[in-house]
Design the sequence.
């Protein structure tokens, strides 16, 4: 999960998604969270909005194994996203 490097709320939102996805779909490979800088692709998407913004990359699309897991775990991934947003919103 990618967030703007100086956004503490973006970082905590990314962490909420990482934790929830690990809980609901632990089979997916986690690459951890990454702080974006101006040199990174997608940085402006996370930097420019006034609200916390993150980019979700829950699995490797180029990995057959991850793709298989992701396509069979759609409800679990959706549950993870809902839980992450709910818990994060309650924490701010």
Sequence:
């Amino acid at each position: 999960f990618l967030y703007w490097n100086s956004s503490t709320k973006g970082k905590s939102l990314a962490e909420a998604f990482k934790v929830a996805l690990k809980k609901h779909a632990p089979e997916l490979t986690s690459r951890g969270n990454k702080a974006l800088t101006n040199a990174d692709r997608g940085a402006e998407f996370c930097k420019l909005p006034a609200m916390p913004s993150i980019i979700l990359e829950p699995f490797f699309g180029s990995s057959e194994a991850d793709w298989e897991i992701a396509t069979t775990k759609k409800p679990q991934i959706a549950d993870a996203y809902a839980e992450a947003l709910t818990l994060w919103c309650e924490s701010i």
